[in-house]
Amino acid sequence: MERTLGFKERRYIEELRILTRSTALDCVIDERFDRVIYVIRQGDMGLAIGKKGENIRRLQKVLGRRLEMVEYDEAPFTFLSNIVRPAEIARLDEDGEGGQVNLLVRRRSDLGIAIGKGGCNVEKARILCKRFFNMDIGEVLLEEDAA
Fold it and tell me: In this protein, which residues make up the domain named KH type-2 (predicted)?
């Protein structure tokens, strides 16, 4: 899937650059969960967040939306780990028939974190993995249940 940025996305990326001096590779406006998801260049995450989350709070006031930031990585597994952090992913399991990839988490307590409230984290993983790696995310499963 080709990534295209509209006027609004480019404006949001520029606001982030001005306020935090960090570089965003991509910006997704998620109307369903009323949030803006930034994909931050590797190594710039500390600059983007700021001391005690100060930059995020300032940017949320300016944009008037909830912000979420994900650090980019070229490896799909590491990128997915960054998306669902603090949940720990054990491995990715490719589904045979649909070509979807299932996320397998280590602990039962990580299952709820990886899915998120109303499925917001798994939806974020679906959007970003489709944009960056052309990968379809299926379900989030517990590692021992999938074995």
Answer: 20-73
Return the CATH number of the domain spanning residue range 87-146.
3.30.300.20
The radius of gyration computed from the CA coordinates of the chain, to the nearest angstrom, equals 16
Q: How are beta strands 24-30 and 35-40 bridged, if at all?
A: antiparallel
Query: Hey, which CATH number is domain 7-71, 3.30.43.10, 3.40.190.10, 3.30.300.20, 3.40.50.10380?
Result: 3.30.300.20
What lies within 8 Å, CB to CB, of 85 at 6+ separation is none
pTM of structure: 0.88
| Total residues found in the chain within this entry | 147
Rounded Cα distance between 107 and 11, Å, is 39
Answer yes or no: are the C-beta atoms of 114 and 89 closer than 8 Å.
yes
